[in-house]
Amino acid sequence: MRRFETATSPHLPPRDSVPALMRRVLYALAPGAALQAWHFGWGVVVQLLLAAALALAAEAAVLVLRRRPARRALADGSVLVTAALLALALPPYAPWWLTTVAVLSAVVLAKHLYGGLGYNPFNPAMVGYVVALIAFPRELTQWPAPHALAAPPGLDMALGLIFGGAQLPDALTAATPLDHVRTGLAMNRTLTELGAEPVMGRFGGKGWEWVAGGYLAGGLWLAWRRAIDWRIPSAFAAGLALPAMVAWGLDPDGHPSPLFHLLSGGAMLGAFFIATDPVTAATTPRGRLLYGAGAGLLTFLIRTFGGYPDGVAFAVLLMNMAAPTLDQLTRPRAFGEGR
Amino acid sequence: MSEYLLILVSTVLVNNFVLVKFLGLCPFMGVSRKVETATGMGLATTFVLTLSSVCSYLVSEYLLEPLGLEYLRTIAFILVIAVVVQLTEVIVHKTSPLLYNVLGIFLPLITTNCAVLGVALLNAQTEHGLVESALYGFGAAVGFSLVLALFAAVRERLAAADVPVPFQGAAIALVTAGLMSLAFMGFAGMVRG
């Protein structure tokens, strides 16, 4: 008697495994990360390696404590994505203990207290970043000047700054473009004046606009490969750019242009790599549009009216918080179900 | 007009009573297991808070202050709140017996919700007028209901999570509330006061 092969659902196997998806995200981060390293020096590379090592160690420790199979969870690469996003968001010459606090908050507090990949309601990388931002606000403003203004520190100097407790010399620091515009506007200067200063580039800040372009390219590739849903970054960009355009149109000297908003700070990294985290984002199509637009709008509001220069991290966490509600409100109607 | 809008933005987001001032945590933890009860509780608390802040303003302005009895403020406000809660309980009991059963002990416990007394006392302290008091109470209640509903939806999702044994239940709920509070820090500095 012949036996029929029977299979249970789902009959269409998923196209991507988790490790393949995470690998793809890491590849897509590469151009932006490389540009960031070119513009800000070796610190970026050192932070990436440090964060990755800490994150792997922390995840392994938790899995051993919980007596879970460690190898499979470590190999899926999700913790490496978290570490990379965090390392790229933190200033490149932040001291090692700051990176440690941020990575441990991200991996242990935000991810493994909830049971690990797939259960965490908040984006781990952004939890780590916000913990560091609130606990050590001064260290988080210490950004080096981009390549175009001052030659970035070499490898030995970077190691001294990160592990040796040295301070970044004043000649090598520069306000980030968002900080620059913010303090300038607070002193009643106009954007025309501010735009003529050396830290400002053509669209965003010098160097920063290139880094943002790198993330944009990587993100577009991810969207094209369907690794991320195009709805979230597009809605994010619209949510950020439309109110910025209105404010800019009404008062072009008091509000930066929409392009400046999109190409400075964490907007591109946030829109394509952080807000699109499939675990913490909304899951329904309409929910994702609302989620992205909300994150963009909150970024604009926090940048314009809030106390922190960049709002991407807070905006993503706030929308993470709203994502389960958005999912419930926008649940698609099942076929035949009444209104 | 813009002043009233600022009061609303301030109480709903910037100085959210639960996540920034840490008032009203008991119902926030107690009735956030399901979204339906959370919304019901939010509505009931909104009604109580708005009404009680108006009533306590009237009591404070026309009874306590003319008679020089400001030192009785706390007791008088608790009394006012208890009366308003009793009224709410009767209304909920008659209009939605189901919600009345689901909310159970938490409905009379609105009396001891520290956010309600906190709003009344803060109103008296900052010398808000009638409209400002009402808006302050309403904004506080909207902020409370908003985060309560969002928190309930997050907790429903957490019910399926593989949380480590020592962190199950209230522990992970408190961790989540802490992370939500962290996110609300982003609104800091938007509105003074």
Q: What does this entry look like structurally?
A:
- The complex is a heterodimer of chains A (339) and B (193).
- Chain A is an all-alpha fold.
- Chain A has two domains: 157 residues, no CATH class; 154 residues, no CATH class.
- Helix content of chain A is 61%, strand content 0%.
- In chain A, helix 11 runs antiparallel to helix 13 and helix 14 runs antiparallel to helix 15.
- The longest helix of chain A is centred in the first third of the chain and has 23 residues.
- Chain A starts with 17 loop residues before the first helix and ends in a 10-residue tail after the last helix.
- Chain B is an all-alpha fold.
- Chain B has eight helices and no strands.
- The model of chain B has no long low-confidence stretch (mean pLDDT 90).
- Please mark out the parts of chain A with pLDDT under 50 across 5 or more consecutive residues, or reply none: none
**Rg from alpha-carbon coordinates of chain B:** 17 Å
Shape assignment of chain A = globular
Q: Beta-sheet strand percentage of chain B?
A: under 5%
Helix content of chain B: over 70%
The biggest beta sheet of chain A reads: none
